[in-house]
Design goal:
By secondary structure, the protein is mainly α. It contains 13 helices and three strands. The protein has a three-stranded mixed beta sheet with strand order 1-2-3. It starts with a helix and ends with a helix.
């Protein structure tokens, strides 16, 4: 019971998200007045924020390793630090959870526009962009941990996964290449979010450009300390850490 109470706010958030999903599914195809449609859209965006706010890296590290990642390594709750402190398999689990929460927030929003507002479907791109960005804000500023959080890179991948799969693959390939050549995960992450607006523009996906620019600004701001360390050549290299562990 004590363990259950420790996670009460997460369970409450899960219940709210499930209610949002159930409502969207139940009202799919219904003819709603404008105010009701906007209310459902707002609920979808709020559900995105709540889903994004769950700090899976922290939960996985504390539950399975007995470690608070905020007190070790880089102090971040993201997959990279969880992998560094707990092991690769736990880092992969945190990565998968963070990707999935971003993707699910967008998928719920893409499903919702079938709800009709005064005969006009809610714009799926606008709603999905708002819900996806809300998930990233939740990850970055989680109410569960004092409005602090991770750097939202994995969740960014999840957000763009259903929206711009091909363009995301190209940006992810650039990210992996930079990490492989430099050893800096932070630099690869910065390349990923910086490349997305450019790649989307090249492909003519103008409708996603506002989201990509907002995401880039959010993630780059989250990496400002990493950027300073990179400029001072003090950033920790993943390759060096790996060689030391070997």
């Amino acid at each position: 019971m004590k363990k259950l109470l420790e996670y009460k706010w997460y369970l409450a958030a899960l219940a709210l998200v499930l209610c949002a999903v159930a409502l969207v599914v139940a009202l799919r195809g219904a003819a709603l007045p404008l105010w009701a449609g906007l209310a459902v859209g707002g609920l979808v965006i709020a559900a995105g924020y709540i889903m994004g706010a769950v700090p899976y890296g922290l939960l996985i590290a504390k539950t399975f390793c007995g470690i608070d990642p905020r007190g070790g390594g880089s102090g971040n709750i993201g997959a990279t630090n969880v992998a560094r402190l707990c092991g690769v398999k736990y880092g992969v689990a945190a990565l998968a959870c963070d990707v999935l929460k971003g993707a699910f927030s967008v998928l719920l929003a893409l499903y919702a526009p079938a709800i009709i507002c005064e005969g006009t479907p809610l714009n799926p791109v606008w709603l999905a962009s708002l819900a996806g960005f809300a998930a990233l804000l939740g990850h970055r500023y989680s109410p569960y941990i004092g409005f602090k959080g991770g750097k939202a890179v994995a969740s960014t991948i999840g957000v763009f996964l259903p929206l711009a799969f091909v363009q995301l693959l190209i940006a992810a390939a650039l990210c992996v290449l930079v990490i492989w050549r430099s050893g800096f995960v932070s630099l690869g992450s910065l390349v990923l979010v910086s490349a997305m607006p450019v790649i989307l523009a090249i492909f003519g996906r103008w409708e996603l450009l506002p989201l990509a620019l907002a995401v880039a600004a959010l993630v780059i701001w989250a990496h400002r300390a990493n950027i300073q360390r990179l400029l001072r050549k003090e950033e920790k290299s993943w390759l060096k850490s790996k060689h030391k562990s070997e």
